[in-house]
UniProtKB/TrEMBL annotation:
Principal location class: membrane
InterPro entries: Gal_Oxase/kelch_b-propeller, Immunoregulatory_rcpt-like, Kelch-typ_b-propeller
UniProtKB keywords: Membrane, Signal, Transmembrane, Transmembrane helix
Domain of life of the native organism: Eukaryota
Name of this protein: Uncharacterized protein
Claim: 4Fe-4S is one of the keywords in the record: no
Record organism: Pyronema omphalodes (strain CBS 100304) (Pyronema confluens)
Low complexity: compositionally biased ranges: 482-491
Keyword Membrane attached: yes
Ranges for region Disordered: 472-497, 600-619
Residue ranges of the TM segments: 502-526
Secretion signal, residue range per the UniProt entry: 1-23
Amino acid sequence: MILVRQATTLILLVVGATTVVNGQNTQYAPDEVTDFCFVSGSAAAFANNKAYIYGGWSKFTGFTNYTGPNNYLRTIDFSKSFLTSSDVSTYVSRSQLPDNIPRNTYTTLWPFAKDKLGIFFGFHESSRAAVALKSPTVTTIRPVDARVAYDTQSNQWSVDTVKSTSGLAMLAAGKDKDGAILKVGSKMSAWIPSLNRGYYLAGLTYKDAPTLPWDGGRDMGDHHGLLIYDANQDSIRNETQPFANGREGGLIHITTATDQLLLFFGGFSEAQRASPQRVRSMREFWIYSTKQSKWFSYISPDTAVVPDPRANFCTVVKEAPDGSSWQVFIYGGGSGQELFPTDTVWVLSIPSFDWIKLPGNATDSTRTAGKRWDPACVNVGKRYMLSWGGRHYAGAKDDLSCDLNGNNVFLMDLTSGMWVDKFDVDAGEYQVPQPVVAAIGGTVNGSATKMQPDGGFDDPAVKALMQFNVKKSPTSSPDSVSGGSNTNSTSAIPAPTSNNTVAIAGGVVGGIAGLAIIAGLLWFYLRRKKAAINKPDNEFQGYAEAPGDLRYAKYELPQGEGHVYPPPVYHPVTEVPEHTENERPGELQIWNERYEMPVDSDQDHYAGGIAEIEGTNRR
């Protein structure tokens, strides 16, 4: 069996070496610079004022049947301003990965140690046609507890394994008769700096061996675990998840008054072998308390406005300046029943759980990121989101558009909610976007007044989790936007359900005091004028202008009375048609046995009415 697979792979390589494109013989592997089309499923991190981009899988112009790994580490320096519309080679640096470093998709870049980024888990991109079989990138298979480290100061790479593991049934299984080992790949991961831990949720298990290409033999199955890497202990452990399945959704981290929470939403909800596939409603959330090691659930009311079900999007998270709320930005992916590629940008505000759609337009129409599947996104600078790569679609899912010359770098100003050309290193701090302020109240600097969803939290335990320590008000004007492109009014706006009694009472008292001050000034002015009748005319040419910080500013409320939600729209769980071709994670057609990872019995507890997972379902 092994010989047959090796022979088959060798034949494919030979065939690839004599591929005919446009009537001409070409090399078996394309030039990764001149033939670049797109890279999808990469990992991105921001450290030391630089963005680092690793991994993913590539397509190339003129090579319709070729899929290869991303063989470069890319870095972008954000210590100075630049235009993304400039020649990409002037601000994106590329360095070739060493041969012994694996190429992975849906992996991590966790800052597990000083000046080091850690690559854990992911789909190993062996690629049947990318390199010769003798290459270490293909023949060296790393186990599930492997760690690839990159030193951002010395630019050196290293590979080792963590010190200890628990609950990793994949690791205990060893190799099968064909020499393949079990590994796991998932789009959903998060790093919590205060805990020095990384979390890698659900996804798919697969077989990894030198002779297994993507289009067969991987035995994809559903992974039902939360893998936790503890950098302080240098260990990996597994905890079982309470929901049935999870793939290609979003996993983010927020800090509350008493806990560090993970929030999971979106993505596929059916087993990978199931047909048809279903996409989880964007009103469904799973919340993980790292303090309690427990999962909780929350579902928004049917009347809430939410995005269409979505998968394969990217996420970034920002905290309001005063800590009263968090904003989760999602961009791209596939949306709706048919999972059509989308370019929409939505914001989920926590703790109100309001979804708000941002304009998503651009200050320069050429710098709109467009419809992208599996882009890599990361916070950069003080207020920007970097979007890099992803499959770019001009229209429908079969209308793929290449990013010629690597033109796949885009920036969104999260304060204005607009795509911009320029990264401005001097741009001000992040402020809550105006559409979000209209929904949750307060100002662009925080002071949110809507601190729970419409109708409240049904589960007291979830309500207890959603408590936040509000910081001291920023020293800057609470009603100013620093450097943003949004020219709308920035006055403080109450939430739709807020009570303004205190504000009204304060206004009455202030008005009375103001009248008294005006009367005193008028009396003072008349006395001075009478005494100065015989003085030169130029002594009283009018009142001097008050200092800028004492002037009254004119603010205008948005049109309409407060925040008006669109008509309620209910988006039920949708079905995705079966795929007719072999594609990458999230669209794979290989249905096979699933692997579940056992955990210790003291971890089998879940809150919020979630039933325990029976031990008989594990292996």
